[in-house]
Structures are given as structure tokens and as C-alpha cells.
Structure to design on (254 residues):
């Protein structure tokens, strides 16, 4: 394993409290299996191409699928963000993630939404995100690619922490509804007005420059190849991959 990625003992200790309890036969070494899952997602591999040192690829795949269905990786991400503390300044944005043909097969009737849509750029999904003042993601929401930023904002901006004082967003979030809802919570909206507005609300240009942090956050997430390109058919497995990447990059990094 010396030439391959391996989670440190300290990193495992950070996430171990959120892992499911083993019942019956003890699980295969969590550290080795989770390291293999991270390796596959970061490098954009097919599961069958995972290095043998991580053990059988079916073990990696089955663990990832089973824990995705149970919401384990989602809870790890949420718990790590809560442990990191609240930020007074938040930023909101969205980015498109290209859908690979292997994930684009027609969904069966009655299946859960896959959150795959078609735009001018082809088939894609859209990741809506809020990050804190340090550029760390604190809320992530997946939709189909053609879904508007406003609908993503409706989800992300609901029930913001009491500590929030400022929200920074680009012109895509300039709406009376968003501005009024933030004002109702006594939160300052740092959002440039659209050019076609007759009355243009003022905003702090110097504060707005901080928005590059959320763009940098998206860039770091897209360095992980199974995040930049969606290979997962099911939405819950894809968002699990995103939560794994976000946790590893921003919260349990060495």
C-alpha cells in the first residue's frame, strides 16, 4: 500500500463515530476499504480497475452502494460541517457536472428521480452549494442541469444558522424573493443587481470579491474525476461521491 492512497489513523478516528455498527461477522478493515473507495472516486476509475491492494473490487463497490443507500456518507459530511463551527459569512453558487453516457440510460418507471437533465451543453446535473467564509462547503444540493438557481436557493437558503450575517451570490440570485427572505432574517444580501433592473439595490463590491472562494471550492471538487463527470446512474450514489470528496478535501485533510 506504500504507493497508494491510504487514510491516516487520525482521519479514520474523525469519521469512525458515524460508521454503522457491525452485526454478526466483523466487517473487512474499514480503513482499507474506505481508502479504496476514495481512490476510485478521486481517480475516476471503474470499480473493477481498483488496485488489488484495496481488496476485492466487489467489496469496495458493495460497501459504497450499501452505505450510500443508508445515507452514511451524507451524515458524515453533515456531522463534519457541524463540528467545524458556524460561519457569519456564507456564499451561494451552482455548477454543472457532465453526465457520462453510462449514467444516462432511461430510468425505470416509478424509480427515484436521477436529477439528470439536458441543456445546451448536453446531459448534465447541477450542484447547488453554500460555502462558508473559509471556502468550505456546508450545504450541497443536486438537481437536474436545467433547474434554475432560484429553485436551488429555495432549498439551500431555508433555515440558515442563526450566526449568518451575510450571504454573497452572483447576479443569478438577484430576485426580490431572495432579497426579502434574507432581510426577514436580518441577513445582508451581497448580490449584484441584474442589468435590466429599473431600481438597482446597492451592494458591497469589496465584499463581493470574496466570492472567488466558492469558485475555488467547485474547482477542488472537480479535481475528483468521478465528481467532475457523473458515472453513477442513481442520484443518491452520486451525491454520496460528492460528499466523500467534500469531506476528504475540506474537513479531514492532513
Amino acid at each position: 500500500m506504500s504507493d497508494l492512497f491510504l487514510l491516516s489513523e487520525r482521519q479514520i478516528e474523525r469519521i469512525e463515530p458515524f460508521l454503522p455498527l457491525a452485526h454478526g461477522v466483523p466487517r473487512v478493515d474499514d480503513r482499507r476499504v474506505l481508502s479504496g473507495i476514495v481512490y476510485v472516486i478521486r481517480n475516476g476509475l471503474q470499480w473493477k480497475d481498483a488496485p488489488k491492494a484495496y481488496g476485492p473490487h466487489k467489496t469496495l463497490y458493495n460497501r459504497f452502494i450499501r452505505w450510500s443507500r443508508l445515507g452514511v456518507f451524507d451524515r458524515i459530511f453533515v456531522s463534519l460541517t457541524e463540528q467545524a463551527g458556524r460561519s457569519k459569512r456564507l456564499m451561494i453558487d451552482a455548477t454543472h457536472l457532465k453526465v457520462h453516457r453510462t449514467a444516462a440510460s432511461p430510468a425505470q418507471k416509478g424509480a427515484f428521480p436521477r436529477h439528470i437533465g439536458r441543456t445546451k451543453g448536453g446531459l448534465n446535473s447541477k450542484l447547488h452549494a453554500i460555502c462558508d467564509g473559509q471556502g468550505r462547503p456546508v450545504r450541497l444540493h443536486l438537481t437536474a442541469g436545467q433547474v434554475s438557481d432560484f429553485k436551488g436557493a429555495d432549498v439551500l437558503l431555508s433555515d440558515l444558522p442563526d450566526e449568518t450575517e451575510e450571504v454573497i451570490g452572483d447576479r443569478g440570485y438577484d430576485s426580490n424573493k431572495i432579497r426579502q427572505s434574507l432581510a426577514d432574517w436580518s441577513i445582508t444580501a451581497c448580490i449584484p443587481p441584474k442589468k435590466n433592473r429599473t431600481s438597482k439595490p446597492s451592494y458591497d463590491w469589496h465584499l463581493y470579491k470574496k466570492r472567488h472562494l466558492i469558485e475555488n471550492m467547485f474547482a477542488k471538487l472537480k479535481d475528483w474525476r468521478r465528481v467532475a463527470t457523473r458515472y453513477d446512474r442513481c442520484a443518491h450514489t452520486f451525491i454520496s461521491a460528492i460528499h466523500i470528496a467534500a469531506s476528504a478535501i475540506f474537513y479531514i485533510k492532513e
